[in-house]
Amino acid sequence: MKLQTIQYGIQDGIAVITFDEEGSPVNTMCLQWQDDLDAVAAQVAKDKDAIRGIILASAKSTFFAGADLKGVMRMKPEDATRVYVEIERIKKNFRIIETLGKPVVSCLNGTALGGGWEVALVGHHRIAVNNPKTQFGLPEVTLGLIPGGGGITKMTRQLGLMAAQPYLLESKLFGPAEAQKLGFVHALVDSEAELMPAARAWIDSVQGNAEACQHIWDRKGYKMPGGTPSSPAIAQGLVVAPAMLKKTTRGLYPAPEAALCAMVEGAQVDFDTAMRIESRYLAGLMVNPVAKNMINTFFFNLNAIKSGQSRPKDVPRYKPKKVGILGAGMMGAGIAYSQASRGIASVLKDVSLEKAEHGKAYSAKLTQARVDKGRMGPHDQAELLGRITPTASAADLQGSDLIIEAVFENRELKAKVTQEAEPMLAPGGFFASNTSTLPISGLATASANPAKFIGIHFFSPVDKMKLVEIIRGKQTDDETVARAFDYVQALGKIPIVVNDSRGFYTSRTFGTFVMEGAAMLDEGIPAPVIENAAMQVGMPVGPLAVIDETSLSLSVHVMEQTRADFAAEGKAYTATAGELLVERMVKEFKRAGRAAGGGFYDYPEGQKKRLWPELKTRFEKPGVAWNLQDVKDRILYRQAVETARCLSEGVLTTVHDGNIGSIFGIGFPAWTGGALQFIYSQGVDAFAQRAAELTAKYGPGFALTPEVIDALKKHQPVY
Q1: What is the pLDDT of residues 283-299, one digit of tens each?
Q2: What does each C-alpha distance from 604 to 105, 547, 589, 597, 615 come to in angstroms?
Q3: What would the 3-class secondary structure string for 271-301 be?
Q4: Residues 127, 128, 129, CA angle at the centre, nearest 5°?
Q5: Rounded Cα–Cα distance for residues 364 and 357 (Å)
Q6: What's the Rg (C-alpha) of the chain?
Q7: Contact, 616 vs 526, CB < 8 A?
Q8: Which residue from 301, 410, 416, 601 puts its CA 20 to 30 A from 176's CA?
Q9: Which CATH number fits domain 322-502: 3.40.630.10, 3.40.50.1820, 3.10.105.10, 3.40.50.720?
Q10: In angstroms, how far is CA 308 from the centroid of its own chain?
């Protein structure tokens, strides 16, 4: 029996169900597969007397990939009932196979995630190839969904309510070895060729053993590990669990809450009822806009970047062997660590050997913490540190495939170090600036070869921040962009590619967030309202807190550099209300930011930071009327409008770079799917209408021109 997505046959009394979706590199729960599963389950039931065991296998390089997410993107709220019926249909067929009274083996030749792991859990016995790159688990919560093919019910009944939480609420994944320790995989083999013989041998060994044909939760006398919700120890933990979850989600992410509800409610009823509870929660989430936002960005957009859609084509893959870094401050030191940890020889240069050694010490500190926790061996630490060469001599940069300058944001200083170091490049090498705001085309005028000059903007702290913004200057060639892209991926980071402009994409948009916060303070809105509103919409921290961390004096320096650049071009620069307030904080009140002792916040030693009390007396206006929804919208809409402008101006050329850049670079809330998905989920016209209302109340920062609206509609994704 051969269907479009499944092959079925019986040999020596063993039925083999092989998943093999035509025309797809992976197996998915597409509608055709659901139809085929109906047919196979019916055939297995019909063949019951002729079979003595069942094997689930895959003809792909992985076992099973999971749900058809494009189908989810097309769903509407009114589809919830239909979705519930489809979920129940899949589970009904799973139950036919696993309750037939025949031993079922899952042969896991590769990764099984999400719905794929739920397919694997149909088997009473699971055998996996022991490959450390293989991953198992249920990552649905990271996409705004929950496991709905039995994953919640089965994982909870296998591990217990408390032990299952990391795998269901936090989407913790695991490899074959850990799966065996958890009891999810029963045997490991060294190669795919050994799977089928091992499966057949197990079926032979359990003939006549009734328990081998049942899951533990279907056996008589089953008790949930750790106890049910009515057990005193479990009940005590469950009292605080919703509050802890709410603290993490801020009520913006319905999936983890739905997962917890399905776990707890399902643990109080029989297995089949628990499965229906799980289906109902999943059906509600699948038509929820948050799930669509998160699937769009964390699956489709992230995969677009990983597959190199922003990378110039027809350029061979590249990885530099030796990279020079100019400047051993926090940024340069972080880049050196990231490179060395990925096997790239790094020369860390500063004005003195002492400063360069201090930069290398940062890597020693990070690695020592890992050694102390047993996550790294002393030999590996020594090897990593051996890849970093601190120096004060430009001659040590000789032969570098890439040199990155990470010095202070001063055009003259950057020009000087560029001209000093560039001659040390190996033939065919390229030069990068780590600037966060200065236009690359202007910095490239100091280069002898502007076609091989590019912006590579890391975020601080480099060892923790995943995003890197690659900025193409006016003369940067395709080969250099492709090589920069490959270099970033070689570091295990996420590259986005943008075109040149002042502040590029991330710094420009980040600037609107913090300056809108400062502008609201200038209007007399209380600082706690501004900070809490930002947290309530899902920003990691408030705008006043984040500008303290990045330094108010740096913002003033950038503004002064911009004024000077405008003056050099014969133009006048008009500072915003937020910029002028920050300038007052630095120049009038001597509040330059956290590193300087205090800014919008005070930082008492050994205590939590707190808002500077003088903000209330100097800026708050008791009579000013403010609207909390407007404050929240100003925080999100101002960033989204600026992102839309970047798309219209060609600074951004793809939606996926905009969404991923906004979330991983500036902390735009993940529940929105990113700054552009925030617009698309509402509809461009509805967003434009609200932006027009905000423009009328709060100024041109929210204004959308017809050109910007047209660009948004032109780039709108279709699924």
Answers
A1: 999 999 999 999 999 99
A2: 61, 18, 18, 9, 17
A3: HHHHHHHHHHHHHHHHCCHHHHHHHHHHHHH
A4: 135
A5: 10
A6: 29
A7: yes
A8: 301
A9: 3.40.50.720
A10: 16
CA dist list (Å): 45 to 9, 94, 102, 639: 13, 12, 11, 57
**What is the band of 622 on the pLDDT scale with cuts at 50, 70, 90?**
confident
Dihedral angle over CA of 368, 370, 372, 378, nearest 10 = -70
- What are the tokens at 522? 């200038």
- Report the catalytic residues: 118, 140
When pLDDT is cut at 50, 70 and 90, the band that residue 410 belongs to is confident
**pLDDT of the residue at 242:** 86
Which is the CATH superfamily of the domain at 6-287? 2-enoyl-CoA Hydratase; Chain A, domain 1 (3.90.226.10)
E-strand stretches of 36-161: 53-58, 66-67, 104-108, 112-113, 125-129, 136-137
pLDDT surpasses 80 at 392: yes
- For 553, residues 6+ apart whose C-beta sits below 8 A from its C-beta are 586, 592, 593, 596
Q: Which two tokens stand for residue 533?
A: 């509103």
Q: CB of 171 within 8 A of CB of 32? A: no
* 539 and 639 Cβ atoms separated by less than 8 Å: no
In the beta sheet, which residues pair with residue 463?
none
The CATH architecture assigned to 507-650+654-715 reads Orthogonal Bundle (1.10)
- 84-90 long-range Cβ contacts below 8 angstroms, 24+ apart: 84/279, 84/280, 84/283, 86/34, 87/148, 87/149, 87/279, 87/282, 87/283, 88/276, 88/279, 89/34, 89/38, 90/29, 90/34, 90/37, 90/149
pLDDT digits (tens, 9 = 90+) for 156-207: 999 999 999 999 999 999 999 999 999 999 999 999 999 999 999 999 999 9
Q: Take residue 348 and report the two structure tokens written for it.
A: 């860390």
Question: In the prediction, which pLDDT does 554 show?
Answer: 86
Q: Which two tokens stand for residue 588?
A: 């009038």
Domain boundaries, the chain: 6-287, 322-502, 507-650+654-715
Q: Which residue type does 344 have?
A: I
Q: Which of 307, 159, 175 is nearest to 226 (CA)?
A: 159
Q: Nearest CA to 346 among 369, 377, 320?
A: 320
Please give the single-letter amino acid code of residue 436. Answer: S
Grade residue 669 by pLDDT with cuts at 50, 70 and 90. very high
pTM: 0.93
Phi then psi for residue 170, to 5 deg, are -115, 0
Neighbours of 649 (CB within 10 A): 13
Distance of alpha carbon 574 from its chain centroid, rounded?
37
